[in-house]
Write a structure and sequence with these properties.
single chain; about 120 residues; alpha+beta; Thiol Ester Dehydrase, Chain A; five-stranded antiparallel beta sheet; about 40% strand
Length: about 120
Amino acid sequence: MRKTLALLLLLAPASARALPVPAHDRIVILVMENTALNAIKPFLEAGESAVGIAVDIKHLAATPLGHDVRATAEVVGVDGKRIEFKVSARDNKDEIGRGSHQRIVIDLRSFNERLARKNVS
């Protein structure tokens, strides 16, 4: 997955946009998580998705505005519905982050029903 940092900052929370160093760790993690999900989407059944349940990332370097941020995600383990990834991200010059990420496969209908029940008073 490849995204330009200026676009990612538009989607970021105000606290991330206020930092003097543009490549906030939340943005790096967002790119890595989305890359992991996109890597497994072709293998999910209709009505399934996967939500993040764990992130262990080291943010290694800042990225200037306008640079591309590219991430990779490699499946390194599967235990039932739990999927573990090795993830990394780079900008135009350096590796900017790396670590591990876990997702769990969910049934979207059941997931959305559980969320709706939380909204009922």
